[in-house]
Amino acid sequence: MEIKLNRWTKSDIFRPEVLEKIYNDGSCSFCHYTHPWETNGPLPGCPSGFVGMHESYYPRGMYDLIRGIHEGIITEPTEKLLEIVYSCNGCGQCGYVCPSMEKLPKPNEIIEEFKAVLVKLGWGPMERHKAIAEAVKEYGNPYGEDPIGKEGWMDSKIKNRKKGDVLFYVGCTSALREKQMVTATAQVLDKLNVEYAVLGKEEICCGSVLLRTGQVDVAIETAEKNLKAIESSGAETLVTACPGCFMTMSRDYPRILKENIGEEIKIVHITQFLASKLKEVEFKPFDGTHTVTYHDPCHLGRHGGVIEEPRKILKAIPNLQYIELERSRMNSFCCGSGGGVKAGFPEKSIKVANERLREIKEAGANAIVTVCPFCEKNFKDATDEIEVIDLVELVNRLL
User: Fold this and answer.
1) Is pLDDT at 107 greater than 80 in this prediction?
2) Residue 328 Ramachandran class (φ > 0 left, ψ -120 to 50 alpha, else beta)
3) What pTM did the predictor assign?
């Protein structure tokens, strides 16, 4: 596509496919909402736009910013520009509802690429995101903590499991912030008689937060180190309980490393693993009086395609009263934590969580089950009125 410009241009910064998309699309407002034929009318779908309450926070508005840079109208960064772009959670709802979504790249992919362009220009990322990258480079995790912390949940027997057919990839947030999730996953694998290996302190961050904030070079460097550690285990299957790790290794590694990790190692989320074992297990009756609903983490559901497996597990539990939310499955509303937003703008993250929690209350649920350390932490930070239950912890309790 030929674009005639009458201003100074940085046309080599954005890929031709991106320019074709932003100059031909963006006249509708589908990216604002859920899929109108799959919910009871269009409901708020974009968390960034929901909180920002201005067109610039939606994909259509961000396309205008890209055009402004491409055409030389925007020639230097501003605090407001960065605040707008880095408010995007990368939830992928816009990519699902976009009428021209068969034309790659999708709106959410363009915005993620936009963040990478800002980093290349030296305009981004946010200072907090820079600190995360430095922590990953020095310590192998985004929290800047001693890698030995990833072994805090292990006994001596587990620490020595360095090789095996199944590798349990723990993940940074689960190991260093939501340790109960790690313990539950390990105990469930033990109850299923799975001999799994662990990387311990040699496990490196998957790089998800680096990619979501546009820090691609550091992400590639991190992914290469991580892949070497994974391959050293000799595993044929990698099981993780973190949706971010699952999506990054199964979807992003083939793209950024030019190597399909899935050809050598099968990447499996713990819910997929558990769903495949349902015929072999028998759950105790649910020991609560809650009406339960399930929240689809964006990285697991919309991005990863793991939607029915968690529901199959929940529906296999006796005496569990389950209801479905209107915004669910591919139309699930984001928890507000992803895309580096929790680190960069915690107050925005909580506002998005409160919108999701409002929907849960109105649906008649008093407990929410999910399977993501980021979703769980953000919901817990936002409220103590609704119980937040980790699916794997629930399974561990009832096995």
Assistant:
1) yes
2) beta
3) 0.94
